Amino acid sequence: MTDTLPPQEKVHGLMVNADLSTGPFYxxxxxxTPKLFRKRCHDLGQRTALRxxxxxxxxxxxWDEYFTRAKxxxxxxxSLGLKRGEVVSILSEDNKEWMYTDMGVQCxxxxxxxxYTTDSAAQLEYLVNNxxxxxxxxxxxxxxxxxxxxxxxxPDLVKIIVxxxxxxxxxxxxxxxxxxxLYKIGAAYDAANPQAFDAxxxxxxxxxxxxxxxxxxxxxxxxxxxxxxxxLMFSVSAGLRDAPVFDTDNQLCxxxxxHILERVFSVNTxxxxxxxINFAESPETIFDNLQEVSPQTFxxxxxxxxxxxxxxxxxxxxxxxxxxxxxxxxxxxxxARAECLADGKPLPFGTNLAYRFWNIAxxxxxxxxxxxxxxxxxxxxxxxxxxxxxxxxQSIGVPVLEGYGMTESSGxxxxxxxxxNKVGTVGPALPGAQLRISxxxxxxxxxxxxxxxxxxxPEKTAETxxxxxxxxxxxxxxxxxxxxxxxxxRLKDIIITAGGKNITPAEIENKLKFSPYxxxxxxxxxxxxxxxxxxxxxxxxxxxxxxxxxxPFSNYASLCAAQEVQDLIRxxxxxVNKDFARVEQIKDFRLINIxxxxxxxxxxxxxxxxxxxxxxKHSELISQMY
Length: 626
Prior knowledge:
By secondary structure, this protein is of the alpha/beta class. 39% of the residues lie in helices and 20% in strands. Strand 12, helix 9 and strand 13 form a beta-alpha-beta unit. Helix 4 crosses helix 5 and helix 12 crosses helix 14. The protein is globular and about 70 Å long. The relative contact order is 0.08.
C-alpha cells in the first residue's frame, strides 16, 4: 500500500497528504475511516477511548471495547440481512452505543443515518422511508413508541434494536430486539466467519458513501446529504492542520451526533487524533459536565458560548462593588493583551505584568468556574457568532476561534487558527480548498469534502452545484486580500426594504444576542418601510432580573408581558441601534411569549430560530408592528 500513497508529511504527529488539492486522502496510511478505526483500536488497545457517566460516576471504555462492540454490532446486522450500501438509522441521544453503531455499520459497508430525538413519529417515518433504512436503533421506550405509532408505514424495516431496556421488561415483539441480543448474534457470526469483519473493512473505498446527514428542512422536506469516506478523511486531514487535537486531549460530546459538526468533531477527529471523548449526560447538564471534564479542545454552537457569557454577566451583576471593580480591571488587562496578540505585536512590559497579576488574582478562577481552565482551543460554528463575544472570551484567556462549514461540505470550509485569527471573519479556506464570491455575492466552495449529492434527489443536487463544479453555499460573504472569509448573511435572508435598501440582518441580530437577556432574535423588514424584530428572551436571566426587582409574574407569557421586561429589551435595542445607520435601526419589537424548545417548528435541533417558520407562525405579531 505504501508504494501507492501520494507524498505524505507529518502534521501534529499524523502522517497526512502533503498536497490536499487532490485525493485520495490518507491519515497514517489509511484512506477510509473504518481502516483508520481498526488501526487505532489495534494500536491503542486498553487505552481509554470513550467515557460515559453511569449512576453519576464517569466510567472508561477502551479502544479494544470500542472495536469489539462495533464489530459485533456490525456483523450482527449483517447476520440479520444488512447488505453493503444499505442504510441503518439511529434514533438516540449521544452515547457510546451511537458510536459503536456508526463505526460498526461503516465497517461492514453500510451507511449510517442519524435521527434527532426531538423528531416526531411522522418525521421518523419520513426519514426512515426516504433513506430506505433497513434497520433502526432506538435509545429507549420513549423512542420505541415513535416507531410503534407508524410501523405500518415503514414496511422495509427488518428489525428495530433497542439500546436501553429499562421500562420494557416483559415487552415482546417479533420485530424488536435489544442491543445485547444483537451483540450475541454478531459474536456468533464472527466466530463462524473470523475473517469477515476485516474483509469488509478492507473493501471500503474512499468513494463509498459513509453517512447520510439530513438537512434541517427549513425550506421543504429534509434532504439526505451523502458524505463519502473520502469527504470525511479530507475534512479531518485539513481541519487538524489548523485546529490540532492531540492524543492527550479530552473532548466533550454534547451536540446531537446527527449534526455534521459534532459527527466530524466527536467521531472522526478522535479516531484520527486518538483523543478521548466524554459524553455529556444531557443538554441540561452541559455546564456541570464542562467543569468535570475541563476539555483541552471544545467545539460548540454560538448559543452555548452566549449562554456561558450570560451566566458570568449575571453573576457579576450580583457581585459586590469591589468584585465588580476587580472584574472590570481584569477584563481590561485581558483585552489589552488580546489586542496585542491579535495584531502580532510584542507585549509591552506593563500590559504583560497587569495581565499576569489579574490572571492569578481572578481570571484563572473564572476559567475554572466555567470548565475552561485547560482549554487550548475553543471553536464556534454552525451559525454566526458576535465578534464582541469572541473578544470577551479572548479577554478572559479563553481562545474561541470561529470557523465555517455546512452539511454539504462535510462540516468545514474555513477556519481561524491561533497563528492566523481575524475576529469577525470565519478564517481562510482549508488547505487544499478554494473559495470564490459569485456576482450575486454568494460564497462558493471547491474541495475534497464537497458532498456526493442528495440521496434520491438529483434535481436538488444540481441546484446546489454550479455548472463548473463549485458548491453553492447560499451564504453571502466577502474575501479580503489575505483570503479571510467574512459571512454577512444568507442569500435568501437579505432584506430589501420598501425604499430599496439591501440589508443583511445577521450583524444586527448578533449584536442584539450579545445581551445576556436575549436568547435569539429575527429581524423583519423585507418590502417594508422600516425594520422591526421578534425577540426570544433568555428565560433564566430575565426571570432573575424580574425577581431582583420584585416584578410579579406567574408564567413565561406574563414574564414577557411585564412592563419592566419590555423596557429592558427596548433599552437593549436602543443601545444596539447606535451602532447602525438610521435605515438599519430597529423601530419596534415584539417578544415571542411561548417558551420554545427543539420540539417546536421554529427551532432547529441546535437551537437556531428558523426565520421562515417564525415569520409565518408569528405573522400576527409582525403585523401589529406595521
